[in-house]
Amino acid sequence: MGCAAILAQRHVAGESDSRMNEPLVRTDTTLLFRSIRAARSWLRTSAAGDGASAVGGCIPIKPGNGETPVFMIPGATGSILQLGPIAAAMQTPAPVYAIRPRGMVEPELPFEHLAEIADYAIDQMRIVQPQGPYVLAGYSAGGLVALEMAQQLTAAGHQVPLVVLLDTYPSRAVWPLACHLDILARQAVNAIWSLCKCTPRQLTQEVTRRLRSLFQYLTASGLKLAEPPSLVAEGTDAASRRVHVATYNAGNAYRPRPYGGKVVFIQPEETPGLEPRKPRQIWGRFLSDLEIRRVPGSHLKMVEEAAATAAEIDQSIAGVLGP
Q: 137 to each of 76, 85, 145, 275, how far by Cα in Å?
């Protein structure tokens, strides 16, 4: 096993309001890393290579030459192993780093605001690469961190030729009305079809379930109609679970600002019923140079079975930096 893979294994972490001092209702480490199978596969193949070492909070997950590195941000769980299968499948000759969020190691505490998370990530990244250009990629909530990093870096005069968002969306509260109407219309059709198949005994239960789901969706969209469900925090210990809660809450509170740099959104073909089918509908008013690419699979499979995702990232990098 490569040194970097061992380091990554040591820095692993298992998406409500901000109640950081209250005990979590329960935890669920079976979902840790979003794919234990993919993480184990990456470790077995020593995808990070031999002889690499961690630099601050930057964990090398793929070796490379002296070309512009790629810095990746994990999802809300903070698990850098989550990104291993993507890095292993990437063909770019540049090195790839994962940025470990603050708070994964006791007695550190995680940041509660996304701008702070991004600022910390920039500090860790600049230990490896003091000056730009910077290529950033973030998975799920990590994409919001990557986007905020790009905002801060460009404001400070640094070059950010590319930001890759791996199925990343801001809070539902900022989604346009047309997007909500599209989702609710699809859900209404599904509900009618499902209710038609119910027995009289099942009907009440199914109606109750769907109304609860509707109220929770509307609450997440900014209408206070129901108490949001308790977050099931993922992690191997209390520190990693705190990171999950803090990052989720920070992402939910974050409000994107207009950004003029190049952004590639990678969307899985399988879209759950309560998720948007048209990323541009949400991101178009914030991102003026947005390109959308699609890959097979779901939100989880795009990192578990990462060949297509890695290929799209490679092509995006080549498009801005050259082969």
A: 14, 14, 9, 21
